[in-house]
Design goal:
Layout (H helix, E strand, L loop, with lengths): L1 H17 L9 H29 L4 H30 L1 H29 L1
Helix pairs in contact: 2-3, 3-4
Length: 121
């Protein structure tokens, strides 16, 4: 009986050691590429957004720059808030789901207001 128990423990240990690990260095290039492309898109948006604020909303360059600074600061702080909520209260899947729904809601509302602005012209 002692021998059978040792065999079972050994097979359990080999099963645990052969199990594939999640994350690690395998996923790191995807995370880095995602962050790099997000930063490129964000920095490409800034000049266009300043021109948009100046032409459509008649905002000065200084005020438009301040608005974009606050927007960038909020965008860079949002992942910290999301990580806190995920780790402390909601869990990762619910946080990702709620973040995706909120993002989709913002995109649809922006599109809706854009359509209203076009119809008023």
């Amino acid at each position: 009986m002692g021998e059978q128990q040792q065999v079972e423990e050994l097979s359990h240990e080999t099963h645990l050691s052969t199990r594939r690990k999640k994350g690690g260095l395998v996923t790191m290039p995807f995370i880095i590429a995602n962050e790099a492309f997000e930063k490129v898109a964000s920095y490409g948006l800034v000049p266009n957004m300043i021109l948009y604020l100046m032409s459509d909303y008649k905002i000065s360059v200084a005020k438009g720059t301040n608005i974009l600074f606050l927007w960038t600061a909020a965008s860079n702080f949002a992942p910290v808030l999301g990580a806190f909520l995920s780790d402390s209260y909601l869990g990762r899947f619910l946080t990702i789901g709620l973040g995706s729904c909120f993002s989709l809601l913002v995109i649809f509302s922006t599109f809706f207001f854009f359509l209203i602005k076009i119809k008023s012209l």
